[in-house]
Amino acid sequence: MQEQLSLLNRISDELNSDLYPEPMLRRVLNLTVAHLGATTGSIMLFDQQNRVSSYILQREDLTSESADKIVGTVLTEGFAGWVLNHGAGDVISDTYEDSRWVVYANQPYDVRSVIATPLRRRQRVIGVLTVVHDEPNRFELADLQLLNAIAGQAAIALENAQLFKQTEQERVKLSAIINSTQDAVLVTTPENEILLLNPAAQEILGLNGESTQGNLLSEITDNDNLLKLLSPNSPAAGEVSLPDGRTMWGTVTELADMGRVTVLRDISAFKALDKMKRDFITAFTHDLRTPLATVKGYIELVRMDGTVTTRQEEDLEGITRAANQMKALIENLLELSRLEQLEELKKEPVNLEEVIQSSMGTVAPLATSKNINVILSDIKNDVVIEGNSVLLSRAMGNLLDNAIKYSSFGGQVCVKLEQNNGQAMVSVSDNGLGIRAKDLPRVFEKFYRASAELDEVPGTGLGLSIVKTIVEQHGGQIWVESEVGSGSVFTVALPALENGHDLAVTN
Ligand code: ADP
User: Fold this and answer.
1) Is the CB of 42 under 6 A from ligand 1?
2) Whether residue 402 has its Cβ less than 6 Å from ligand 1
């Protein structure tokens, strides 16, 4: 009994000392065979389809060819197959009298008594442990119990080893992906301690392979953009400029119970392309201004040259309209490209009611010309946001201009100003033509004009793009609801200051 306990202890040590199945099982087999004074033993392991996945023999004097042959035979006709099918172990006292034992040709040693038991995990037989002796009657039922205990422990250790192998394989795969990706990957704790930097991240941070694990991000870089991106409550994405001129786009993902994963992708090529495009538009539209002014000058000259016929006057008015339309297009394009190039807005506390009043003044002549009543309703006083009043008036003016432009003579336009949950909400509604559902998602796109029937309404398709850009630069959102024939409601939500208090505190 004492001996059996000490054997089980040794086996348990062996099973825990190695996470690789084969050497671990081989040592267990050696100990078991030695303890039982047996001739030799084997362990056969099965896959999910009960095919033999590996075969460990204590004696290594069998060629792999004859081992394969043995495996095939014993599983179909032999004792191992019996154990697998019955899911239980047994003792063969004398192989000469038991048909379950198959004697194969050229067997290098004689087998007279056998003991075998299954290795089981969750009701499934995953292997068979067999011990043999060259004399009959060498094993008893007590030995079977011992073998059962060994097989139980081995099965658990085997499963652990397989889980470890799977985890290890996944880890190796994942680390190969992370290490080979061109994107920089930084994993940090919520306190911004470094957990992992892949080679691309090390390159970006100018590190030469030195270990940074456990260091604070602020100890290894002074890049303001990056530190800001990883500061609490910062937006989850943003640009990061590097000292060598490259621009990266960083996205931060929060991981529960771990920290954050930041991925930085090089967008320098896109930035360069975008700049080229904007420079081109600016230069091109700028150069168009002069010939356009000349066209308008010549129109006046024609009029000054002498009386023009009614027909000629209509033609001149047509040319003037086209030139004005072109001028509006140029001005809008220039404005949009200026807005898009703005790095940071000059902001101050802005009272939105004042913004609304000033833009209403700008559109008043147009409203009067179409006999449209612009009314203010539900205007909350003292709604203050941090922003740029000139740009906000421009955005408001564009929304009012559209509401009037796309309404019939005698229509009504209504402006509301509310504050809900820290958001300033401005809405401009009209009872005009409305927008078809299929056009709704596209009206904020550059150059998109919703319908061909509106061609007689002058426009460039850039007004709402300008409004959207301004709203987004103020950290806000804009959306539209509309029905053809009933009218449209454009709503802008902007982060509000609590009656200017927030700003007073930060200032
Ligand atoms: P545009 O210079 O054509 O007015 P915008 O960008 O301001 O350009 O608007 C894009 C399109 O959205 C317009 O051409 C029009 O079809 C539609 N739209 C904008 N505002 C309204 C409105 N209040 N009512 C109906 N349609 C509108």
Assistant:
1) no
2) yes
Is residue 435 in contact with ligand 1, taking CB distance under 6 Å?
yes
- Lowest mean pLDDT segment, chosen from 131-135, 224-228, 255-259: 255-259
Q: For the chain, what is the radius of gyration of the CA atoms?
A: 41
Q: Is the CB–ligand 1 distance for residue 433 below 6 Å? A: yes
- Separation CA 54–CA 23 (nearest Å): 12
Instruction: Tell me the mean pLDDT in the region 101-107.
Output: 73
Residue 259: Cβ-neighbour burial (10 angstroms; 0-12, 13-18, 19+): buried
Quote the pLDDT of residue 61.
55
Distance 429 CA to ligand 1 centre (A): 13
Pocket of ligand 1 contains residue 478 by CB under 6 Å? no
Whole-number Å distance between alpha carbons of 471 and 391: 9
pLDDT at residue 504 in the model: 38
Q: Residue 142 has which token pair?
A: 């007590």
pLDDT value, residue 64: 61
Summary mean pLDDT of the chain: 87
E strand or H helix at 428: strand 423-430
Q: Looking at the predicted structure, is the pLDDT value of residue 17 above 80?
A: no
In Å, what is the CA distance from 333 to each residue of 210, 462, 467? 50, 8, 13
For ligand 1, atom 8, which residue shows the shortest CA distance?
Answer: 461
| Cα–Cα nearest to 33, from 53, 60, 72, 71 | 60
User: Is the predicted pLDDT of residue 501 greater than 70, yes or no?
Assistant: no
DSSP string, 429-496: EE-SS---TTTGGGTTSTT----GGGGGS---S-HHHHHHHHHHHTT-EEEEEEETTTEEEEEEEEEE
The string of DSSP codes covering 298-352 is HHHHHHHHS---HHHHHHHHHHHHHHHHHHHHHHHHHHHHHHHH-SS---EEEEH
Say if ligand 1 is within 6 A of residue 488 CB. yes
**Which atom in ligand 1 lies closest to the alpha carbon of residue 459?**
2
Closest approach atom of ligand 1 to CA 460 = 2
Could you tell me the distance, in angstroms and rounded to a whole number, from the CA of residue 432 to the centre of ligand 1? 11
Percent of the chain with pLDDT over 90: 48
Min mean pLDDT across 80-94, 232-246, 451-465 is at: 451-465
**What pLDDT digit, counting tens, does each position of 391-429 carry?**
999 999 999 999 999 999 999 999 999 998 889 999 999
Pocket flag, ligand 1, residue 432 (CB < 6 Å): yes
Residue 414: CB atoms within 10 Å? 18
Nearest CA to ligand 1 atom 23: 403
pLDDT tens readout for residues 41-89: 999 888 888 788 888 877 665 556 666 666 666 677 789 889 988 999 9
Other beta carbons within 10 Å of 412: 15
Read off the tokens for 201.
Answer: 């991240």
**What separation in Å is there between the alpha carbon of 449 and the centre of ligand 1?**
6
